[in-house]
Model the fold of this input.
Amino acid sequence: MINNPSHLERLAYFTIQQSYEPIFCMDAEGTIQYSNAAACHYTGYNYDELVGMKIYQLHPHEDAETWQRRWKRLRKQKKLSFEKWQPAAGDQWLRIKVHQNLIEMDGHPYAVSIIENRTPAYKIEEKLSESQRRLATLISNLPGMAYRCLNDAHWTMEFVSDGCETLTGYRAEDLTGNRIIDYNSMIIPEDRKRVRTEVAEKLEKNQHFEIKYRIQKQSGEVRWVWERGTMVPCENHPSQVIEGFITDITEMKKAEQALIEKEKAVRQLKDRLQEETIYLREEIKSSSNFDEIISRSNAFRRVLSNVEKVAATDTTVLILGETGTGKELIARALHNNSNRSDRSLVTVNCAALPAEMIESELFGHEKGAFTSAYTCKKGRFEIADQGTIFLDEIGDLPLNLQTKILRVLQEGEFQRVGSSQTITTDARIIAATNRDLQQAMQHGRFREDLFFRLNVFPIHVPPLRERKEDIPLLVNYFIQKFAAKIGKSIKETSQAFMNRLMAYDWPGNIRELQNIVERAVILSEDGRIKQTSLIPDSSMPQQDHITSLRENERQHILRALKATNWRVSGERGAAKLLDIKRTTLEARMKKLEIHRSK
Done:
């Protein structure tokens, strides 16, 4: 029978355990004696953890004193209800209502708390209250007039905001119910018919209307206004109801008129600036033909002859040469003498960009394509459309991107990072490298098909040691350049200085020469350059081939790895020997393609 005490106890226990509301039972000290499954879920503790805890330990701002105050009230009133913010599982704060009852078992008093989660209702009430407050504040502070009117012959106003006095000169009570004047009669006669017609057409289609017209204020002043309104459903109403907003736009109309009056002058200025731009482009083109290139050697003249022949075409050019020979100047000369010279020359140094950024720089990315992609960004190929793109140090391009460069060369198509949309580009490609691409292909570091696509018209830029007759010209040019820069007057260069320059083999080519001359100008005294000590001894062994900074770093790391028997980390590892972090060394090994041979 259900009236059996044991059955009732089981029913009560089952009901409490299955309750969706958390239930706690505490003794006089606030020690939890029992909690149901919902209480465990609510707090994030299991039953064994909860039982024995103090109830106030579940709240960071409550203590034993808080509990004793509530216990005294409960002993006196037998029942309590109160609301508070309570932390819950998952770092949440919930708005709860606690229903507390005093019970006695085996002669001892206990508090039973049933927790009602009022967070959703509280948030709704809070939002409603805040919305009402904001609406009241908004209406009272509107610069124009909010209204509600009947769609009758006079647009009889049922409600207007306080802003109507500023807008029309009449008080709200003067307009409500057409007590003093109806709004329709304030619209000037020239605009009245148009306004009524346009409003009626929009409302007939159940669309909102926006319209500009003129009204005459109580003072007689004519002002331009902008009105936006719509029909609203209203049951049991004798007529259709319109709600909307009207604001004064007189100053805007004056600004529009002033803008129209200035438009002609702006167009004239634009035409003049376009003419000046065309003129400046011609000036730039004529002044930057080959002026940056200084040479009288036959070897370099052949290079310039090839530049002149291929510049006017759209042929892909591969510039080969050691570091510091002036490959970028050749690329600039190719662009400036091409039929694309009025467009951009976009330069990308493939060796200077981190591997994870090269693809985004070349092809662009969509917003959200990766963590730091906060906006959509165009890539260099997209910017270079109709112009020229110069891929410097292309021999350092990662293999996965070489395939994408090949696609641009073959089809003129690519995709931004994070997008499946194909973008086309008509960019002429000029590439340059100081690496032996043939050797790179043999070692699998450069795609053979990409090499043959790039190598349509190779231009070999000779090293400075093969055009030493240019050294005096270059030295004179750099002396004048750096002397003017630092405000010195150089009148003489010692023969010993020039002899040492001519005897040296210049592994760093023109860039190395430029740096030495700059230092010599800085150290010059009495208008004379004689710092021969700046130039390495010609008897010093020179490398047979130029070594880039990247290759120097690669060889240095290889020596450290060999010295440590390819141990990377630890006290006897290469990272310790090089005084860098293990992760940094591993990243550089990956970047420089350093692998232990098997």
Residues 127 and 133 are 10 Å apart (CA to CA). The two ends are 84 Å apart (CA to CA). Residues 250-287 form the longest helix (38 residues). The chain has five domains: 5-122, 142-248, 298-460, 464-534, 549-591.
